[in-house]
Design a protein that fits this description.
Layout (H helix, E strand, L loop, with lengths): L1 H29 L3 H26 L3 H26 L5
Helix pairs in contact: 1-2, 2-3
Length: about 90
């Protein structure tokens, strides 16, 4: 019974994360300002990372955890690059 409850709760979490990803994608497309688009992109990569973690828990495969770590690192670096570009207009000085 508990294993079934865990599987159903992971499935529900994945459905909710997919819905959050859809809302973030909407914010990226319809954002009135560049800052809104950057925040939507940050939310999208965080939700994608969490989706991979949930899928890794569901399948008990460690490859998904490593992929989620790579997405987290690349997402952080891209957020810094976008913020620097919006502040100064250039990324590399």
């Amino acid at each position: 019974m508990t294993e079934l409850a865990i599987l159903w709760s992971i499935l529900l979490a994945q459905v909710m994360l997919a819905l959050a990803m859809a809302f973030a994608l909407y914010r990226i497309v319809k954002g009135p300002h560049a800052q809104d688009r950057v925040l939507g992109l940050d939310t999208l990569y965080i939700n994608a990372m969490l989706m991979l973690v949930a899928f890794g828990i569901r399948t008990a495969n460690t490859v998904y955890f490593e992929t989620a770590l790579i997405i987290a690192l690349l997402g952080f670096v891209s957020s810094i690059a976008f913020a620097k570009f919006l502040m100064r207009g250039e990324i590399i000085e």
